[in-house]
Amino acid sequence: MSHTDPGTPIVRCEVDFTQRTEYHEGLEAIRAAHKLLAEVPFTPSLPEKGYNNRTLYVNVGTLEVKEKPVTQQMKDVFVGGRGFGLWHLWNAVTPATRWNDPENEIIISPGPVSGTTQYAGSGKSLVVSLSPQTDIPIDSNVGGYFGPLLKFSGFDALELQGKADQDVILFIDGQKGIIRIEAAPLDPVDSHVLAEVLTRMYAENDADRVNISVVSTGAGADHSLIGMLNFTWWDHRRGCVRLKQAGRGGIGTVFRDKRIRALVCRGPQVKSGLNHPVDQETISQTGIKFHKEMRTNDDSQCKMRRNGTAHIVEIMDAYDLLPTHNFQYGSHPDTHRIASPVWQARCTQETVDGCWYGCSMACAKGADGLVLKTGPYKGHMVTVDGPEYENAAGLGSNGGIFDPDYLLELNFYCDTYGVCTITWGTLAAFVMECYQRGILNLERTGGLDLTWGNAEADLEMMHQMARGEGFGWIAGQGVHKMKQIFADRGWGDPALMQDIGMECKGLEYSQYMSKESLAQQGGYALTNKGPQHDEAWLIFMDMVNKQLPTFEAKAEALYYFPLFRTWFGLNGFCKLPWNDVVPSDNGTTSEPAKVPEHVQNYVDIFTATTGIKIDKDILIHQSAKVYNFQRIFNIRMGKGLRSFDMPPYRSQGPVTREEYESRAERYDKQMLEDIGVDPTGKSIDEKIAITRAYRIKRYNDLTDAVYLRRGWTPDGVPTMARLKELGLDVFPEVVEIVKAHGG
Amino acid sequence: MITVNGDTLAWHPGMTVTDILVARNFKFPLLVIKVDEILVAPKDYQATKVPDGADVNVLHLLSGG
Amino acid sequence: MGVDQAMRQLRIDLTKCNYGRDCAHECETDCATKVFKADDPGLAALHIRDHGDGTGSTILCDQCGDCVVVCPAEALKRNKLGVVMINKKLCVGCYMCIGYCEKEAFERNTDWVEPYKCTSCGICVKACPHAALEIVEVPEPARRII
Fold first, then answer.
1. What number is the ipTM of this complex?
2. What's the CATH number for B2-60?
3. CATH says A285-508 is which class?
4. The whole model's pTM is what?
5. A279 contacts on C by Cβ (under 8 Å)
6. Which residues are paired to B7 by β-bridges?
7. Average pLDDT value for chain A
8. In chain A, which residues have their Cβ closer than 8 Å to the Cβ of B18?
9. pLDDT tens digits for A601-616?
10. Is C112 part of the contact surface with chain A (CB cutoff 8 Å)?
């Protein structure tokens, strides 16, 4: 089944997608055990031009509930979404605050366009907190219904601060205008059970379930630093909750540290126009135009509706970019076992898979009828959300696992335990390579035979983490801390582990091979939050298109794309509809990689919603304010400088002899042509060292060029001139930090 | 001999755009292909012949995550 | 849902219809005013268009059910007669139905949130002076994956 052959018939999965194990039998006992701790009425409202102009603050420790205004300055500088999250977090913490202090906050903010029902991917929210993994702010983009329902209840953001002394649920009823904090002693722990119970509990009847969204995590977040948050929506064709994730950085761990069991929002019935946009007709027309584009082009382009993001598994493999065995290699002969035709046949095709209304890209595929082989839910039949590309690559090829059912099971348990699949994939790959190299062994892992491809051992490691015991607990600390733990125990060479441990700033790398793309090395390491590809994905532009031949060209891309992509997270847009389908005439435009018609769609929808006239340059300017603010926030929290933008060598070049040998021809050719050194007669270790020195120097040269282009000092500090350009000099503490660091 | 994104590729009589994609293992679905600056639509990849000495640009659009 | 079900489908006989050259577009007028309470015949759920060069075209909903497949709110369902009907209460106004209708037969009025479509009610059949329109019982097509 190839992308150039849209005539190939779709294989239908024979699974009954309405069947699964159900968990709501004990619902009444769970509800009866809830104890009301606080109840606060509020006046529900709907946004005007995308904003309610107020946010909700809840302290789960003191039980304080209050409303805060959204100021004009907030809208001018921060727009919404990630911007509002960073602003509230900045005001909540000091440079001394750590992730598990009560002052740390979790802020959920949808953004002015979020909740639009016509344009694909217009229901996202951003979640911001101080990360347990990085100690700096993490921002995480998530779908599901919670953000829009929160907004249509009356709030542009939700701030959660403090720590409860027992497990609590926060319930926001946007229909009745009541906020409740309830003690929840008997509520289930893991998301696929908890979210089902809570959706049924808080809905007044069957029809009301689509108005409920739950934010929850699972046992994994109780015992690790890598917990994430699930945001639900009710899938009424399937009759079950579906889960999208605010995955990266450990926000679920903060959530559980605060003893929050779940957030539940009950919104009003969703309808077109609840944002009260200035110009609904433009939004409607643009949305319909995009739906038609999806109808006409998706089957011959990325097949998002059929395969979701997993459509690129075999493509990455073909380009030698599929992370394999802890990013050592870029392809594997067994990739076809987890490639998109497998998922197209395994995922249910007959349902609607958009994670917010109006998403015609509808990539939230689900695999139904999986009977679990391991763990506390062994024997249960479940629906798995995914797999996404990241899951197939991270949980699959990166760990040498090519069995689709085991891959689905790993995906499922990550989701219900509340841990990030990207993070788990990369940390498990690190563990397996350590096992391969004798840094770990059966004794050190407590009997887990963590060889490449051993999915059962990988799953048991995850179950141990969820129970808070054994080697699994160590794994749940993440790669950054594992390197330290192993070194402290005298296991392995710390320098080797530093090279192969794929994390930067404390966050694990996501599932793309940057080894041969200098631009992508910067795309991962010169980021604000850590090596997550949402800032820049430049591999093809760099390596295949050869569009970035000079440092200046790379720097320009590393200036533009992070700012462009940041903009989605200020507004509540999903990035995928921007470029996972393109108009038929996109190739005739001057810059097809930017998909200019879609950029114009976004400009039009933002303006039509808010009444604020922007163009594609103002869009970049809006992002630049938030992006630079975040950089300064990182500096404020003790990182944010050049030394923290230095990546592990595995992300830049071949660490080991096997890696060099696997691409020897290419590396030798580069040595001769690019470095100007003849490889003939040199030992492999000499060649590895020469390549390494060259690549590290190139990365440093790139960093110089990128910082310059971004208006930063050579140490990575935004300059006063840049601050003034962006209007950030109105914040005295921001100016102080910049001046203190030579900006 | 032709060039594809600046790299050389052996040419044979009757070579089509599809042949280039196969030779280079270019499986990505979102491509913008120009042969000597002339845009070739996806439906024409199979039929479009590439002359010897052509400068071919196969732009992969971004996608990714 | 099976192919043995029948559905009521509006059909036009183009040997009897001259794309409005020999009539006053009574079908569109009656549909718009009587069914959808709109003054403008352009807002009818069927369209008869004279291209002015001797040719013309018609847009009729054939109850294919593609819109049922794509609706995220399950607001579109076949009734007992197999006709695809919109439940306005459930509709969220996302317009994926309009986007995915290959015949461009799903309609929108900028005054209303919910789109609308032909319900095989037969008013246009009665209105046509040339009896070019009829409602027929045909098998329901298989549900597509789109």
1. 0.96
2. 3.10.20.30
3. mainly alpha
4. 0.96
5. none
6. B4
7. 96
8. 4
9. 999 999 999 999 999 9
10. no
